[in-house]
Design goal:
This protein has helices at residues 3-9, 11-30, 42-59, 75-98, 106-126, 145-162, 174-195, 199-222, 232-238, 253-267, 271-277; strands spanning 69-72, 130-132, 137-140. It is mostly helical and 285 residues long. A hairpin with a 4-residue loop joins strand 2 and strand 3. Bound molecules: zinc ion.
Length: 285
């Protein structure tokens, strides 16, 4: 069965999921802890790995035969890059003035030296939490400990996808993202329960609700059904991505997230393990 037909067949279930997740979200928000969050740092990054990786590997049925490399992009590195940029640019401006009337190659040399750090800095700020398959490396830039649990589990799921030959992962594909988003949320939920702290789940859950609502809205258009009027307030609270188009497309994170959320309900939570061996397993049920 095609994934769009699968979703169309489960619109009522999707409505139930949205209702129950919205309820869970408001409950968790009331229980939100008010003590300060840990800041993730280079020192605490290894504790995060020790905490999250075994849980995620177990959830995905992966025996950890291979490990990816982990790199934490610390705020200090951010600062060094930014200072380098500022000094480079200011220095260039100053020396440019000095060399203005000279017939030298100085200004072009300086242009290169000033713009190299700029180029590097732009590239670096474009780097977000991610998994690089070529180097089998996970990069984490997240600062808050509670958010980092979900983020690291998400990127680790991309690593496991990458080394699972049957899964045939492709960066940015809706299957990869849906699988990683669902994995991240499950691990965040497990840690939240262990530590009795809902902050681990809140941001992932809010994101998930946004995706579910966007895909739902697209599905309603496709099957010519009016969206539930009781969802209007949810659309304004979580459906912030609604202005974008085509949430049913294969490029959309939203459809991937929704697909796995619905698949969990119809197939069971083992869908996260089983798709690594048989990617379309839940569409065959
Ligand atoms: Zn991802």
């Amino acid at each position: 069965m095609d994934y769009q037909d699968y979703l169309c067949e489960h619109v009522t279930l999707l409505e139930e999921i949205i209702e129950s997740k919205a309820e869970e979200y408001s409950l968790l928000q009331m229980q939100r802890a008010f003590h300060p969050d840990f800041r993730l740092s280079t020192d605490t990054f290894s504790s995060l790995i020790e905490r999250v990786v075994p849980l995620t590997a177990d959830f995905l049925g992966y025996d950890q035969e291979k490990l990816p490399a982990f790199i934490y992009i610390s705020p200090l590195r951010d600062m060094v890059f930014s200072s380098y940029l500022a000094i480079g640019t200011l220095g260039y401006g100053h020396l440019e003035n000095l060399s203005h009337h000279k017939e030298t190659e100085l200004s072009s040399v300086l242009t290169v030296t000033a713009f190299l750090p700029l180029f590097y800095w732009v590239l670096r700020t474009m780097v977000s939490d991610s998994y690089y398959p070529v180097k089998q490396t996970i990069l984490i830039k997240e600062r808050q400990w509670t958010n980092a649990v979900c983020t690291l589990a998400h990127e680790y799921a991309h690593f496991v996808q990458d080394i699972s030959p049957a899964f045939n992962s492709r960066i940015g594909s809706f299957m990869d993202e849906g699988h990683a988003l669902g994995t991240g949320l499950h691990i965040a939920r497990a840690v939240a329960e262990q530590e009795n702290d809902s902050r681990y789940v809140l941001s992932g859950l809010s994101r998930s609700l946004g995706q579910l609502l966007c895909t739902y809205s697209d599905l309603c258009t496709k099957i010519k059904q009016a969206p539930k009027s009781s969802f209007n307030s949810l659309f304004s609270q979580f459906g912030h991505l609604r202005q974008m188009h085509d949430f049913l497309s294969k490029n959309s994170y939203c459809v991937g997230g929704t697909l796995f959320t619905v698949a969990e309900k119809t197939y069971g939570v083992d869908v996260y393990k089983d798709v690594l061996l048989r990617p379309t397993c839940f569409l065959e049920v």
